[in-house]
Amino acid sequence: MNGFERRRELKKQHILQAAMELFSELGIQKVSIADIARKAQVSQVTIYNYFESKHNLIHDVFIYYVDQASNQFEGIVHSDQPFPEKVKMIIFNKKQVSSNIHPEFYQYLMKEYTEEGNYIEKIYIEKALPYFIQLFDEGKKKGYVDQNLSNEAIIFYIQMLKDYVQREDVYEKILPLTEDITNIFFYGVMGKK
Amino acid sequence: MNGFERRRELKKQHILQAAMELFSELGIQKVSIADIARKAQVSQVTIYNYFESKHNLIHDVFIYYVDQASNQFEGIVHSDQPFPEKVKMIIFNKKQVSSNIHPEFYQYLMKEYTEEGNYIEKIYIEKALPYFIQLFDEGKKKGYVDQNLSNEAIIFYIQMLKDYVQREDVYEKILPLTEDITNIFFYGVMGKK
Amino acid sequence: MNGFERRRELKKQHILQAAMELFSELGIQKVSIADIARKAQVSQVTIYNYFESKHNLIHDVFIYYVDQASNQFEGIVHSDQPFPEKVKMIIFNKKQVSSNIHPEFYQYLMKEYTEEGNYIEKIYIEKALPYFIQLFDEGKKKGYVDQNLSNEAIIFYIQMLKDYVQREDVYEKILPLTEDITNIFFYGVMGKK
Amino acid sequence: MNGFERRRELKKQHILQAAMELFSELGIQKVSIADIARKAQVSQVTIYNYFESKHNLIHDVFIYYVDQASNQFEGIVHSDQPFPEKVKMIIFNKKQVSSNIHPEFYQYLMKEYTEEGNYIEKIYIEKALPYFIQLFDEGKKKGYVDQNLSNEAIIFYIQMLKDYVQREDVYEKILPLTEDITNIFFYGVMGKK
DNA sequence: AATGAATGAGGGTTCATTCAT
DNA sequence: GATGAATGAACCCTCATTCAT
């Protein structure tokens, strides 16, 4: 990658970052291209030169998102903390780019794309899923996780928790419940016996 | 309530119902007043006569929603099925008007209103919450639920599950996991011992 | 048609008239909805309320056009002037709404519509063509027109002439040639013998 | 002309050719500079370096066009076919670059330029007209054309026919009428006596 | 000389809301 | 009270053109 391409790539990421932040804060539909252009300090047309349409931009933001997420995720999975600590971090570490897809992205993309939908899902599975599985295989081996539970069900739970915890409207209310929520996750509403 | 008022009230509910259905199907932002007017077979202005603004309409749809939900909810709580069955019904019974707020409603209202937010929350707490608490008190008494867990945490979990299960994009993938998900809810990822 | 509908119809025609004039003067592509709205003294959205899209508007202008044209045309055909005079009028009477389609309309519609294209052509044939045929049957009977010539060929000639004569860029240059052009039409470049 | 200039001239013609083809296919307004740049495989700015504006480019395409046309035209006029055959070729030979201006060019230029208009017309007259006149003088001498007809009127007819025949939307419908149309051109609607 | 990047201006279209009847 | 008609503001997108390298 030469200097030209590198600069182009940087600017692209700059725009993607701006878009991602605005999308996260306000939702996709409320953010206009003009908003993104303003935040990224480029003209609207520049965005079109890079991404061709709002649709494509959203698509690329999604990939950017998954990419960043899986990197951070990998860090946690490969760290040498005890298993429960890893799980807690994944669920509650708000600053981290969420490793699972923000639901609005996913929903939007699935509704609008249909065909590309499969491709997007593929990307997601390839990038993010393996770390989930690796993590819970570890959990099962170490006795923290019931061996009979399907990975799908566990991942569903983690994703769900992560999504919710990261939503601005619930985050604050949940903080004091951290311990209880972790407990429910590990021991269920029935509790340890 | 005389005949006039009754008719007015009916028409209002008619509009609310139409709006609710469209919001549920397409999300709030994608539904225009014109769409609602078409579906409810009234003129746009009639909607304004009743609700004054789209904002207010959404507000009222929300209340309508919570109202319907809490009624159905009450039915389940007061029925004479065993506790775990009640929980399962609440989480997985898709046809039922969701007893917790559809997240987009909640998010939208919280972001837009701020001030009224508190009022809306109050409504929600008054209407829907008591049944939750009643239900889990029953669960705790009958030994299905750990007495040390806070109601807030349990309710958070239930809401979260219900939300996710009801989302079109995940519903189908989750169906085969029903058993596992219920198990995790009751016994955690660690499983029964 | 009650008062409401009549007024609506009038306004529609008002917009159509404005659009037609602008299209004739500047071509279709150069005329923006804003231009038409300004000329018709309505808001842009009003135009959308009536016609739904620029595309549809053009379509309707076309029909409006053909309609007006065939009326005027009928007048000439049924008048009691001698045959050559009628032909001359049709070709050279510029003020008359051209009875054949302005080529840009036709081309635009054919390119964009494809499917509706057939419908449009049908309209045209139903409305305008019969008068052409009637006229030239008269011409053949009275000995002004060679009986062996196909109506298609004659109509093609007339249309072509009319189109050209009405084009702003050639009109003035042609005026002094009126006599010659008429002669060629009747007697060919070879001339009367 | 040295090597530099020659190369420059070649590139210019390359661009002109690309532009001409696109204009012919899609009309002037629908073709963007970006389209032309893509087709000619140069950057947009290169086009501006050579032609300064889209306006100028159109102008130069026009001249390029007339130039090519008059060359082909000369070939026909100076060939040794019988006169009627030459005329037929000019009118119906679609592949040949039209020797008369494509109407959209002419109209566009006339409307936009006004001042330069005269210059363009001059170019056209200088290049293309003499061959027309030469051809019809031949026709008059050989008895195919009425001596009393003005050249202007004849040329008007030829141009008009050529234009129409070359339009995609009418070409196919006209093919079966070739004979009739040629007859009308030579003998008029009245027919040979 | 040639290019990739960038942009202001404008076009078609939609929407929540108001006006007039 | 209810409606059809009308609108200003905003949105996505395109284009001819210029800037910077």
Automatic annotation (TrEMBL), chains A, B, C, D:
Alphabetized PROSITE patterns for the sequence: HTH_TETR_2
Signal peptide boundaries: none
Molecular-function annotations in GO: DNA binding
Keywords annotated in UniProt: DNA-binding
Regions that span the bilayer: none
Domain HTH tetR-type: 9-69
Record InterPro entries: Homeodomain-like_sf, HTH-type_Tx_Regulator, HTH_TetR
DNA-binding region: 32-51
Name of this protein: TetR family transcriptional regulator
Organism from which the protein derives: Jeotgalibacillus alimentarius
Classification lineage: Bacteria, Bacillati, Bacillota, Bacilli, Bacillales
